[in-house]
Amino acid sequence: MELTMNTLEQSPGGLAGATRSSRPYTPESRRSVGQNLHGVVLAPAKRQWAQEINEELEKSASQPTSEAGRWKDAPPSELVAHILEHFHQRHRQQLPELTRLARMVERVHGEHPACPRGLADTLDSLRHELEDHMQTEEQVLFPLIARGEGTSARTLILVMRMEDHHHAEALKRLDKLTRGFTPPPVACSTWRALYLGLSGLCVDLMEHVYLEDNVLFQIAAPTRKRETSHG
Q: Where is this region: Disordered (predicted)?
């Protein structure tokens, strides 16, 4: 599964398709905050998670989605509430647990050629970076947007966009370390649970970034399109 900057910037139709395609490979019904990943029902060993998700992304990238239309027409305060509930809370549950599983896999299978050595540290760095990002949104930016004062925070919005692109680079590193989130045939249940959870994290973070950068921020502080001059 090759993750690029364009993947994170594609239409919400594509992201909705990715979410649909990933649900069989992530914890059942996106279990509530605090649920442990050890409770997942594991898919067959030969299932190609990354390949199927990537194919779905490409196939559905241009398809419209009522979900995107709903948020584009909704008050910014409602979209802010949705992002807080469905993404900020979820990331705070996902990353510590995935980091814990990654350290277990690296400790037990460190000598295996396919072991994702360095994955736990990468996830821990992403967790700290994302936590700082989310706190800035929760404490400063989102209250401004909810009050209809987003245009006064254009500089902060630009910083948040830059950080979102940095998160995209982190997803590319995760993809590389895990060889497209594909565990080897000999992988234990913990290793497989780790990669299932990582695929879900990536889809969630892609949708999170899209809704912020291309819907919420655009509504709160529309960017001015430059007119192209000819001649």
A: 1-39
